[in-house]
Amino acid sequence: MRAMAAAAAATLLLPLLLSAMITASVAAAGEQETLIKVYWHDVVSGPDPTVVKVARAATTNASKTLFGSVMVIDDPLTEGPDLGSSRLVGRAQGTYVSAGKDVPELAMAMTFVFQGGSRYNGSSVAIMGRNEVGADVREMAVVGGTGVFRWARGYAQARTHAFNLSTGDATVEYSLFVRH
Ligand SMILES: *[C@@H]1O[C@H](CO)[C@@H](O)[C@H](O)[C@H]1NC(C)=O
Ligand SMILES: *[C@@H]1O[C@H](CO)[C@@H](O)[C@H](O)[C@H]1NC(C)=O
Ligand SMILES: *[C@@H]1O[C@H](CO)[C@@H](O)[C@H](O)[C@H]1NC(C)=O
Q1: Cα angle at 90 between 88 and 91, to 5 degrees?
Q2: 173 and 111 assigned to the same domain
Q3: Atom of ligand 3 nearest to the CA of 165
Q4: Does 61 contact ligand 3 (Cβ within 6 A)?
Q5: Ligand 1: distance of its center to the CA of 95 in Å?
């Protein structure tokens, strides 16, 4: 009896398994991998900052890592490293939070939305992850996307290109490896 029941269950399951496998392979076949390199500009200084601090803990000022501060960004993304002369391809909008008590580390949650200067105009990718700002290369997750990046997944690698210690202005190179 038990063997028969198991055989019957297997007969029922087999078509389901096969159809799941076919669906997966179709999705994989239509998929592409796109590499995007952009420069992200966190402008703290000057008359038109693109990053603002919106909250901090009572203890943040005393923390060497500014633990507990919350920033909101609308940072320009450009093709080359120079904000003044490079083509604008999009904006990085979202938040980052100082989330390291001992090591300067940011928890990033932002959307890269591409604009008219980009071939991905109107599409976006969502990036989340741990950004240990002192490390040469920081890896974050690409967790999704819209438009041409629907169903996106992948990863981003961030490398600091320039950091002005007196103003806090930063330019970071982001390489995105996206499957979609
Ligand atoms: C922390 O420092 C900022 C800027 O210097 C100041 O405006 C704020 O009042 C300080 N906060 C606390 C809780 O000390
Ligand atoms: C980018 O997309 C917007 C909104 O869809 C559209 O109005 C605009 O014309 C597009 N720009 C280019 C350069 O394609
Ligand atoms: C940092 O910013 C200040 C103020 O804008 C500027 O005078 C200085 O040259 C900058 N330093 C670097 C290394 O770019």
Answers
A1: 115
A2: yes
A3: 1
A4: no
A5: 20
Using a 6 Å cutoff on CB, does residue 32 contact ligand 3? no
Domain extent, residue 144, equals: 33-179
Q: Ligand 3: which residue has its CA nearest to atom 14?
A: 164
Name the domain count of the chain: 2
Whether residues 26 and 40 fall in one domain? no
* Stated pTM of the model: 0.84
113 shares its domain with 76: yes
Say if CB 81 and CB 161 are below 8 A apart. yes
**For ligand 3, is residue 164 a contact (CB within 6 Å)?**
yes
Cβ-proximal residues to 113 (8 Å cutoff; 6+ apart), any chain: 90, 91, 93, 123, 124
Q: How far is 123 from 118, CA to CA, in rounded Å?
A: 10
- pLDDT value, residue 7: 56
Q: List, for residues 30-87, the tens digit of each pLDDT value.
A: 899 999 999 999 999 999 999 999 999 999 999 999 999 999 999 999 999 999 999 9
Residues 98 and 16 in one domain: no
